[in-house]
Specification:
about 40% helix; 7-stranded mixed sheet; 11 helices
Length: about 260
């Protein structure tokens, strides 16, 4: 976790310049609110970072209080909104039943314990509150993973959770009627180095089990050679499996009766 926080803090100054995929997914996530959003006094932008989603939320909910929470302080400094909290999403500094909507764009893949995260989200949401999020699925950066796999058996690319497992964890934490969706987006690059430069620029190059052997020149060249086998129409593809999910905190009336 400290490695991830450090990477995002370092990337904050140039994050918005390279985060075109993150901007597009934030846009698509915001559009989903047109259909499912209800009464909204307080909205929590969880993993708000530099504000790619915060700004659309201010436009969509002009009369609501938007709380922008992130664990990377330098990223929050770039966020132009007023209400900012630097905190860990697994330990939200918010009271029970105080938030109408939690919305999170591409943050959950960095949380090591989704069970703890969803438990906290359920705690701070009001009854009938909504959680809406995007994250990455297992096929994300599959070309890079397969290219490294030919070189050695070290972990060079982060692993991501299957959307069905995410849905199960929502249910285990008492969320109702989870809806999970998936789409595949592909970015293209001239070289592997361009892809890795983009990942570094948004702080996404950190792998918790990173090995010192990763920097070996021969291994790196072998990986790049393997990646060339994916080149199509003069470009190298980088696949992203994008997962969208939403669910409700709905406490049945019988559960509210005190015996």
């Amino acid at each position: 976790m400290p490695q991830v926080r450090s990477a995002f803090n370092k990337a904050s100054s140039r994050y918005n310049e390279s985060a075109f995929l993150q901007k597009e997914i934030a846009k698509r996530l915001d559009e989903k609110l047109e259909v499912i959003a209800g009464n909204t006094e307080i909205v929590l932008d969880l993993g708000a970072g530099t504000g790619l989603l915060s700004q659309p939320l201010l436009t969509r909910f002009p009369d609501s209080k938007i709380i922008c929470l992130d664990f990377a302080q330098e990223a929050l400094k770039k966020n132009p909104t007023k209400n900012k909290l630097c905190a860990d999403a697994n330990h939200l500094p918010l009271s029970n039943n105080c938030v109408d909507i939690i919305i999170s764009n591409l943050m959950m893949q960095w949380c090591g314990n989704l069970n703890q995260l969803f438990s906290e989200c359920h705690r701070v949401l009001k009854n009938d509150g909504l959680i809406l999020f995007s994250t990455f699925g297992p096929d994300t950066l599959k070309e890079l993973k397969k290219s490294w796999a030919v070189v050695d058996n070290q972990t060079h690319v982060n692993s991501f959770i299957d959307m069905h497992d995410i849905g199960d964890q929502l249910l285990q934490n008492s969320f109702q009627s989870p809806i999970m969706e998936m789409e595949t987006l592909t970015l293209t690059y001239q070289t592997v180095t361009d892809l890795l430069r983009d990942l570094k620029a948004i702080g996404a190059q950190t792998v918790n089990t990173r090995s010192k052997s990763l920097t070996g020149k021969n291994k790196f060249q072998s990986m790049m050679k393997m990646y060339e086998s994916y080149r199509q129409d003069g470009k190298l593809p980088a696949t992203y499996e994008v997962i969208y999910g939403h669910a409700w905190k709905r406490i049945k009336e019988i559960d509210l009766i005190q015996y």
